[in-house]
Design brief:
single chain, 293 residues, alpha+beta, Uridine Diphospho-n-acetylenolpyruvylglucosamine Reductase, domain 3, Uridine Diphospho-n-acetylenolpyruvylglucosamine Reductase, domain 1, 5-stranded antiparallel sheet, binds uridine-diphosphate-2(N-acetylglucosaminyl) butyric acid
């Protein structure tokens, strides 16, 4: 693989991905690149496209399960400073895609801007949360979007307005783009009310979900009008173990990496969860996490 001259020392080979994910599972990326800016991103994309390399975009690594064999394409990480800028214009926030949602929530709270409190405690990046329309407590990030700066996989930049975007439950029409920045419409609020709301959401999350062990958040999407966690729980699977992976005892839609779990351990548990729920409730569970292999 021949990269443009200015990138050839910057694209790394065989970079281990497990440590870059919240699950702490996965093998190496054949090529790994963290562009310094949009120009480098665009150059790497057009070069990878010409070579027909599969391109993977890593956000905060909180919603993915990676094969122990790793991935044979190019993994792009938007964790450099130019993708983590944040500013506000009146009650709108403009945030870089590499920023963590927790940083976005703190920024909004410190400027007395309301409307993003529900994102507190969701362990994702701004970009990843937009692609998957992350949400909680009946709200999702897509409903806040006013404008979006994206790059297509050929390296061309576009600005999309809200009416060009389609967000559904844990889905969007953005998978053909890499998110660069977003403009979110919030509203002026009382600083203490915002802080109290964030505290409340974090506290509920702590009692219903938190575990100190590595995980990837909810494994399956919720079926319409129900909770995947509730269905898995009703199948008696809390605490079920395969290898070093276990169904969480606090919330059955979480799988925990108890110590050195393998890709196959998690897949085996996922298959079991799907099978049991299908047999007992005639419901097909669909993964919410992205699987890279
Ligand atoms: N429940 C059980 N057993 C369990 C888990 C849940 O009986 O093991 C019951 C609860 O008691 C409750 C109902 O199921 O009556 C719903 O549970 P919860 O409030 O925890 O919400 P959820 O539907 O399981 C969704 C999202 C979470 C988000 C919470 C809070 C999905 C797949 N999950 O979970 O998002 O944090 O609501 O808004 O949409 C994620 O996307 O990664 C995630 C964790």
């Amino acid at each position: 693989m021949i990269w443009p001259k200015n990138l050839s020392n910057k694209v790394k080979h065989n970079v281990n991905l497990a440590g870059l994910t919240s699950f702490k599972i996965g093998g190496p990326a054949r090529y790994f690149f963290a562009p310094a800016d949009v120009l480098e991103l665009s150059q790497a994309l057009s070069c990878a496209q010409k070579a027909r390399l599969h391109i993977f975009v890593l956000g905060s690594g909180s919603n993915i399960l990676i094969s122990d064999q790793g991935v044979s394409g190019l993994v792009i990480s938007l964790n450099r400073q130019s993708f983590k800028k944040i500013s506000h214009q009146g009650s709108c926030i403009i945030a870089g895609s590499g920023l963590k949602l927790s940083q976005l929530v703190s920024y909004a709270a410190s400027r007395a801007l309301g409307g993003a409190e529900f994102l507190a405690g969701i362990p994702g990046s701004v970009g990843g949360s937009l692609i998957g329309n992350a949400g909680a407590w009946g709200y999702s990030i897509g409903s806040l979007v006013e404008q979006l700066g994206v790059m297509d996989y050929c390296g061309k930049i576009r600005v999309l307005s809200a009416k060009q975007l389609k967000f559904g439950y844990r889905q969007s029409n953005l998978s053909k783009y890499i998110i660069i920045w977003v403009k979110l419409k919030l509203f002026s609020a009382d600083k203490q009310t915002v802080a109290r709301q964030i505290k409340k959401y974090l506290a509920i999350r702590k009692t219903t979900q938190n575990s100190r062990l590595p995980s990837a958040g909810c494994i399956f999407k919720n079926p319409p009008e129900d909770s995947a966690g509730r269905l898995i729980d009703q199948c008696g699977l809390k605490g079920k173990v395969k290898g070093q992976a276990a169904v969480c005892s606090k919330h059955a839609n979480f799988i925990l990496n108890t110590k050195g779990a393998r890709f196959g351990d998690v897949l085996a548990l996922m298959n079991l969860m799907r099978k049991k729920v299908k047999v007992k409730f005639k419901v097909n569970l669909e993964p919410e996490i992205k699987i890279w292999k």
